[in-house]
């Protein structure tokens, strides 16, 4: 009985990951992360995702703060965006990384309107990748639970 | 040539200010059977090696240079370029100035593909420059540098 449930969940997981690749939400770097997970480090991907989300939320809060200042400190802004771009790239969050590139560009040009737009994109892309990754994690856990019951 | 040098464990010191990247590099290195120490800054790296930030090395006047080196057992340093305070490039320069540690291969990682930066690092003694995100295939490229450094060590020991 569980065989079928496990197979169905694995199909769901495969389809979710594939759709994320197709939509550019994830890129090949995510595959690299999955390849680093094995029986000796069974929670590696989940741990990295968790670290990433905490970090991203912290940075997004700071970016919001700096952008709403009377006199925007562009160098601070750039430093934070650089960090977010780096960690997005490290986990394979492709569209989020691109959104960071756009904000860096707008910040360099001192174009406040562009900055606001780019920041909104960052926030949007972050929530998209986070919610999909959360579903992925839940699927993983469910699969592991069922497999352990075998 | 000969020997079961493959079986010998190499100790890598990894330096990165990003928490996520530290986790990644640690996993990449351990997957490749390296022993790993990870620190979050250039100054922590120097501290680990027993070097000061300034020109003067922290050493007992009586201790043997080579003994220090072997006791610590760091065979390679891999560092991010962009770090607050001491950059990876600053760390590279500091290591190359050190009589104890200048022969340890240093590898620089960066998310930015800037040719002038890459050339400067390589010219000033970095063995490799890796673009982030670092892959398992990049880490596999490190082993030859370590083997070479080890066989050089053995050559000098014979004299």
UniProtKB/TrEMBL annotation, chain A:
Transmembrane segments: none
Superkingdom of source: Eukaryota
Compartment(s) of residence: Cytoplasm, Cytosol; Nucleus
UniProt modified residues of type Phosphohistidine: 82
InterPro entries: AHP1-5/YPD1, HPT_dom_sf, Sig_transdc_His_kin_Hpt_dom
This protein's domain notes: Histidine-containing phosphotransfer domain (HPt) contains an active histidine that mediates the phosphotransfer.
Protein name as annotated: Histidine-containing phosphotransfer protein
Organism of provenance: Hibiscus sabdariffa (roselle)
Taxonomic lineage: Eukaryota, Viridiplantae, Streptophyta, Embryophyta, Tracheophyta
Automatic annotation (TrEMBL), chain B:
Positions of post-translational 4-aspartylphosphate modification: 80
All residue ranges annotated as the Response regulatory domain in the record: 11-147
CDD domains: REC_typeA_ARR (cd17581)
InterPro entries named in the record: ARR-like, CheY-like_superfamily, Sig_transdc_resp-reg_receiver
Domain of life: Eukaryota
Keywords associated with the record: Nucleus, Phosphoprotein, Transcription, Transcription regulation, Two-component regulatory system
PANTHER family xrefs: TWO-COMPONENT RESPONSE REGULATOR (PTHR43874), TWO-COMPONENT RESPONSE REGULATOR ORR4 (PTHR43874:SF106)
Protein name: Response regulatory domain-containing protein
